[in-house]
Amino acid sequence: MATPTTPTASRAFTNNSLDGDAVPDEDSSEVTKLFAERLQAWKHAVGYLEDYITATEKTNTAHAKEYEKVLKTVKDPLKEGHHFDQALGGIAGMFENIRSNTQGISNQHHETAKQLKDTVLPTFARLHAEIKNKSKELAKGAGKQSKAVDKARALTQRHIELLGTHTASFDSHGGKLTASDDPYVVQRGVYHRLNKQIQEENNNRQDLITVQNSFAQFEAHVIQTIQHGLGQFMQVVNNQAEQTKTMYGDMVGTSQRVPLDFEWNGFVERNNNVLIDPNAPPRTVSNISFPNQDHRATQPLVAGSLERKGKIMRNYDTNYYVVTPSKFLHEYKTDDNFAKEPVPEFSLYLPDCIIGAASGQKFNVKGKDVSRGKIGNSFSMTHELAFKAHTPQAATQWWGIMSEAAGKTAGGAPAGSTPTSPVASSPTSETDAKHPAPLQTQGLEKQNSVKSSGSAATKSGPTPISSTTPASGVDKKPGEY
Predict the structure, then answer these.
(1) Angle at 364 between CA 360 and CA 368, to 5 degrees
(2) Where is the composition biased (Low complexity) (predicted)?
(3) Is residue 169 in some structural domain?
């Protein structure tokens, strides 16, 4: 008796199964799963692009807010803005242009974010939805057909195994089987189910071929949509970049078009009442007036150059002298008021001086230098100064004015060498009343107190110094004491 055998099917792990394999050893849903996985990959790829567009949109929104902060740095009016011309074409107009363009850049970022969200992002969102619908279509179509193939193969496999069981029983029992277990009947059942299985397999194969062919077209559509969406994205961001570039260029161009002298000319025009007119002549002392400039106390009684004999070298030096209404004789080096401070070299208060008679071009004055103030004058010594005028007439003029200032009315040159002295009297003018009592010369006071036969001055007026005519036996030259 032959040993019964159980038929075994040889199955290959390939899409092209051997013709002898009734039930191929392959996964009928393997192709469907591969397509589903590929659709998942495309969905994730499009999802990345959606995230990229969304992040770019949020970045532009943030940039718009940041540029609003930038705008605040130049939003307030310029400090000391009145120094700049408010007309267009100047610095104030340049800052106004900066504000306008910075606001435009902020608005452009807002507009870019809006276009990305409303125009570009929906393109990728629709593509994402198409990929998801394609996945559902694959699961409902080819996926469902694959399950039908698996079911038919399972039925065929069970009847093939049943045929093996009954053929084995036929060999072991000598052909004694029931009619339903007859291997012939079972075999025909196998063929029936195998035919249905092959129909399902062929239908599934045709569906997969259709899906496979459609995938090429679908992927081309996906790529075209991606290209279109990125083209829209590029157009939006390029427009934003061009606008930003244009606005920055306008800022720079506006600043470069400001004429170099525009602000200065406007500044000079607005402040012409304050600024110095370069065409105006410079100020001169001769054209200037001030209070009390021509007051009678400022006008000298006599002024000019005289020669004075030196104390050591005994030669004459020329200096500038002035007799003032205040009854002072001032000596200056020159009559120049500008080279240095015009401070008198010495000053004599004529009412306190003894004025000798004029002899030709010469005359003498004896008194104290009072130019050093009250304290210095108390310790100053009495000096006898010998003067010489340029002409006898000039000497007579100087002697007469100084004698009158000293209190004696000039009536001509006295004879001999008789010294003159101030006339003892109370102040006869407003100028004399305002002067304090003159200082006394100590040496002369002692001498004159013995020889004086005149009356003393009153307490309210200057104390006069009397002089007497020397004895006829004393021979003195005119003008000497």
Answers:
(1) 165
(2) 415-430
(3) yes
